[in-house]
Design a protein that fits this description.
mainly alpha, 44 residues, 59% helix, elongated
Length: 44
């Protein structure tokens, strides 16, 4: 499986999730993407 996200850095959102200045909605979106990719990879 190849995942391409334009202009997104999911790893940064995961890495900086505990920083108070990092936007919470971006962190939540990154976790949703990661879980969706994991579920897709395990079911296909």
């Amino acid at each position: 499986m190849v995942v391409i996200n334009f202009n997104m850095d999911i790893g940064d959102a995961w890495e900086h999730a505990d920083w108070p200045d990092y936007p919470e909605n971006m962190t939540a979106l990154a976790y949703r993407f990661g879980i969706n990719y994991l579920i897709y990879a395990m079911t296909h």
